[in-house]
Fold these 2 entries.
Entry 1:
Amino acid sequence: MTKLLAIVPAYNEAGAIASTVSELHVHAPEFDVLVVDDGSTDDTARCARRAGATVLQLPFNLGIGGAVQCGYQYALDHGYQVAVQVDGDGQHDPRYLRELLEHLRSDPNLNMVTGSRFLDATDKDGYRSSASRRIGIRIFSRILSRIVGRPITDPTSGLRMTDRRGIELFARDYPHDYPEVEALVLSHAHRMVGDEVPVRMRARVTGRSSIGSTQSVYYMVKVLLAVIVGMLRTRPSIEAGEAAPVHAEHGL
Amino acid sequence: MEMGLRIQLVAIVVAGGLFFLVFELVRRKRLMERYALLWLFSTIVLLGLAVWKDLLVTISTAVGIYYAPSALFAVALGFILVLLLHFSLVISRLADQNKVLAQKLSLLQQRVESLESREAENAEAPRTSRAEIGSLP
């Protein structure tokens, strides 16, 4: 029996986390649920625990990247074969986890499957983000499709399932601030094979998006820089047996 | 000439003062040696240039600065830029280490909590069984 883990990063999501967790229990019972409380100042951790999830509580806010990476480290430590990211705010419908899993297993070469809002162009239902953000998403979609060499219709989707190889990679190296786009470049650099599955997303129930409207420009510039730098980095992460990625400095 | 001498004195006093300030901070263990080295190096170079005026004039004419004391500012600015970049590197490294620590902490905390709850269950189990034995006729 393979071990499956749903990683749910949550920052001040006390209003939505319980229903997210119980939905996961109902619609994806084969997945263990891990909520990563990213230094919330509200009751997120307690709500999640009461709903029956395992909870990792970060001592302060690391940002989505650090929280998700922590989830992958848990998956690595506890020997999970498959891990999937599900947002804590209820945007992602757990009913799609089965489809993602089936797709991941249908092809042994596949390492990562992403739920895409835009893959099925005829389907206009479901939450598809604001118009201004869709422009940004389309730009990244173009760039990333070029880089990766396969069509990527929803580069900012956080609904992502990966196999053991992805878990191992992301546990030791995961982008910081707005990780979804960069993680695609990173996984491509490590020759992981990915694919997309059409999904519908819902508008968030409570809480605030991690990206405010004023930050959108910063987001675009930062992610573009990260993508370009990420491509120029010949070895974006440390392979086993190499020098540690973080170490105390002896010299200057 | 009078003016040139005055600015030379000011430069010597400032660079020398900075050198001793940094040195004193290291001596009192307020500043780590590894972060003081760059400071000490820059103040020594600035002090040297301020004292040895001919060298400063040679350098400034070589790079095309007409007013020699400006070269001193240029060198100081260069050191400041290097120091700032150095700090950015240090901050990035600290932030990265901080993130790793926070993640490790939460993982360990979860591990401790699950061990504690398992232990509590184990402690509970024998007690109930003993109670059952006692209630047997």
Entry 2:
Amino acid sequence: MARHTRFVAAGVWWLEVGSDLLQVSAEPFDMGRVYQALSDPECGAQLVFTGVVRNENDGRKVDAVHYEAFAPLAETVFKELAQEVREKIGATLRVVIWHRVGTLKVGELSTVIGLASPHRAESYAASRYLIEQLKVRVPIWKEEHYLDGEKTWLDGAELAAPNSGGNPGRWAIGADGPE
Amino acid sequence: MVIKIRLFGALKKFTEAGVALLEVPEMCSVRELHEPLKHRLSGEFPGEFKGELVDRAALASEARVLGNHEPVGWPGTLALLPPVCGG
């Protein structure tokens, strides 16, 4: 049975549409919820990608990364992305897109992209598409905190209104994406 | 009319609590918000604020990114979103 439920409480936003788990959260990930959302007897493949805070960027030693999001729009874009992978890759895909906000230390998980599908090919294609799109379309920002005490907001992809011809960072299915 | 704009990322530090109130003409377009906002922030943070930050930012509602030529003459809060880099 399809669920259409939105909860907003204690700094946690999440949106469940059908079987999807689409969330921006200040709380640590609950991987049990991820696998629960992906569970489907018709799906023989589950694929979970996690983004992790790295200890170096552009030659600078990183201590932590502070993530900020415009949560209402972010969850709307998550919903659009889930619809897109079903239309372009596989109608039966189950989708998890979960991103943390707040200050995360090196080694902490920042992002979870989860897919389930009858066969592995759809999940692999959808996972790559979702993480590349997340980086250029979702209103999330990160401020790196370095071991020397300095900190800086990282540059990224400019957002543009739909059909405006903007956002050159959009990434097509099957293309080689950035690292 | 007065428009309330939430600022994020590198723009946030130029406001109190991440919110700017801006007096603009009725039926002002999204693009027409940029100059008064840049003028205001460069006046308050001379030498520190860079206008490019606003030029590269997109204005959005809670539901979608707005086009440059759309009017902003509705009640509510808008958001100014600098280039994104999640993940």
